[in-house]
Amino acid sequence: MRKPFMAGNWKMNLTTKDAVALARALKENLKDVTEVEIGIAPVYTVLAAVAEVVRGSNIQLMAQNLFWVDSGAYTGEISGPMLKDAGCSHVIVGHSERRQYFGETDESVNKKLKAAFASRLVPIFCIGETLAERERGQTPAVVERQVTKGLEGIPASDAKNLVIAYEPVWAIGTGKTATPAQAQEVHASIRSLVAKIYGQELADGMRIQYGGSVKGDNVSELMKQSDLDGALVGGASLKADSFIAIVRYQP
Ligand code: 13P
Asked: Does residue 175 carry a pLDDT above 90?
């Protein structure tokens, strides 16, 4: 019922030549894939070049962040209409690295989600607890706060298009994946929170991706969990072979 969605977050990596080569390799080797939705999020400077490569293919172009004002005196920022203009259909919002290093809060994430919807971009809304929060037993409270505040004032007509990515901060780039059971537990709780806000039907249709050291050799076990609907992949999305293996996981 929910189409799996595998997305590559390239983070601050790859200049034009390598980005275009990677996009070409993915396009060529994934062109027969219809049962899995695919997205890649390059850095801003290569969006236009990568857009040329993936145009008309089954690979969707995503950005890694946006600001909530359309244009104006905001040095260094980029807006929804600009990302649309560059060929993006999706945008990652509230990634833990943005929260950790760039001061993003539940409030700024909420504004960015609204801005994404206003520009007809599908947001990938990232949430997840830190190691210290998990060890203190705060995972449920942190996730509840992030979901509730992040989605404040967002109508169901927008929320139905949203994708959530659960990315436990302690599993990102560390090689420490959450166990399938750990991930499933949080994913199920996220779905119930969404159901509380928007009703069961909307919650049942919402894709919830897992992110944090996803690789070709752990993706199938994760995807067997009933509330895992895809992955947001960092490191393993930077090489064609490893991302292809993830998209082509054994269901
Ligand atoms: P890694 O796959 O490198 O752990 O990164 C996950 C992530 O942050 C994707 O957004």
From this structure: no
- How buried is 71 (Cβ within 10 angstroms: 0-12 exposed, 13-18 middle, 19+ buried)? exposed
Nearest-atom index, ligand 1, CA of 232: 9
Does 187 participate in catalysis according to the annotation? no
Residue 110 has which token pair? 């909420």
Q: What is the pLDDT of residues 4-30, one digit of tens each?
A: 999 999 999 999 999 999 999 999 999
DSSP H/E element including 198: helix 180-198
The total number of residues written for the chain in this structure:
251
Q: Please report the beta strands in 42-185, taking only residues with DSSP state E, as ranges in sequence order.
A: 59-63, 90-93, 122-127, 163-166
Structure tokens at 64: 């890694």
Annotated catalytic residue: which of 37, 90, 95, 129?
95
